[in-house]
Amino acid sequence: MFAVRAAKRAPWAVVGEKIIEALVYFCGFSAIVFVLGIFVFVFKEALPIFAHEQFSLTEFLTSSDWYPTSESNKRYGVFAMIVGTASVTVLAMVIAVPFGLGAAIYLSEFCGQKTRETLKIVIELLAAVPSVVWGFIGLTVMSKLIVQYTGTPVGVNVLNGGLILALMSVPIIVSISEDALKAVPDSYREAAIALGVTRWQLVWRVLLPAAKQGLLAAVLLGVGRGVGETMAVLMATGHAVHIPHGVLDSVRTLTANIAAELGEAPAGSDHYRVLFLTGVLLFTLTFAVNLIADTIVRGIRRK
Amino acid sequence: MSPATAQSRFAETPAVRRKLRQEAIAKWIFCGMAAAMVVPLVLIVGYLVVRAAPSLNLEFLLEVPKRGMTEGGIWPAFVGTLYLVFLSLAVSAPIGILAAVYLNEYAGDNWFNRVINLAVINLAGVPSIVHALFGLGAFVYAARFGYSIISASLTLAIMTLPVIIASTRESLASVPRTFREACWNVGATRWQTIRSVVLPNSISGILTGVILQVSRAAGETAPVMFTGVVFFKAVERGDLFPYYLDEQCMALSMHLYTISTQVPGVKESIPFATAVVLLGLVVIVNATAISLRVYLRSRKKW
Description:
A: about 75% helix; B: mainly alpha; MetI-like fold; 13 helices; globular
């Protein structure tokens, strides 16, 4: 009897449901379409540069001569920008990782329920500050402080970018590390406390070793954030295309280079294509970082 | 500690005292590290607001920029941001919610769906400037939308899609499986179950995702600066519908970038006020999402 009833559903309802389910499937697949689309479109715009006999990929990656608008001697080497991105990101991680980890440990092991909820909301708000506002803070507040305390003539440099980027990537490091610490089974904690350890010993000897993979993933995601960040580093690191010799040198990052020059490069020119090639490089770099971080996080969940 | 209580506990040896001291020090160090994250935020926001104070009033919001953007207000940029946010939301909300439904309700654990998951994660990790390059190549040139609000909104929509997918998915996953089973047992089909049981029970997470998308879209600069947002556009004061969809527009984030780096001689407090308005907008939107989540969680029936 049920079967008969089911067969009697209005035909439009059956068809409508089929259509909706097809739509759901389509939207589900769309993420793949978009990611592939991003790669294909960015790569497609960059591709013709390889046909150019004067262009070589080795030079692109290893030379630090960047003269895209020179009349006689155009050179496209992004090595200085790669070093710029690396220096700012490394400095940001050196600052953000200890503080992010410390904050995550405080959140998950030391503080009470109320404090935790409040701090998590603050972290969420910290993560929501737009990157252009961070850049503005770097340009106005941070650069003045740096000039005042270090005596350097220019306040927009690696240190400024690193500090800003550290503040920007701390939220993601805290939240992923806290998840990793939470994932350590309570029985580990109970066993340690039963032996009479202090909470410091518990953190140092038990939790950190047990959660180290998750913490690694947190750091990797922070790195991904740092490499991909655009507006903040565009405004806070200055605009010098050269290899920095200290934290008080101005640099330019890969992302900032695209943002600064894309507007001036005529569509279809070599300059334009090289900027898209930089985009391919960035895409590949962040793809790899995210892939590794995700594999680690997934591995933890399976355990 | 008084002697009486000390006796009622275990005897306190020097080792125990050292342990307790260690523990207290560790606690304060970690507390300090957590504070090192909060304190700069408060100080910086406070500083911005103080510096912005001379310009912060309703007139600033409604007025258009004057004298080559060195004076006046931010109305065209504010309206432009609203345009971009709502258009991108109109595109990414339906796609994102349905994608989350697929991932949580339909997708089995096979390699294909693992690839989809990976794509979602990677979409969230793609640098914003690469999204800009994609928008330029795909929407401005290939789809021939030109530099327009449509191109910019579509770029933003794709960029913010993972925010909606992640939040919706999490809330779908938190609906107990027994709810679904009960619904299937009275003969409902898969979609009927989703429509009448799963979606209504996860509305809070969906709304949170939508709100977070709004805040993300409002703050982004790089993806829109090469796809449809310009430095300046003449607009009437207080005009609510100043732009056509195939035109370029101004946006708050881009406006802040322009007046703080490209335009000389801007009145001191104006960039600060623009930053405070943008920051305020994002914080208010986020605070709404947070309070909505807290409220709806307190009413949860399971």
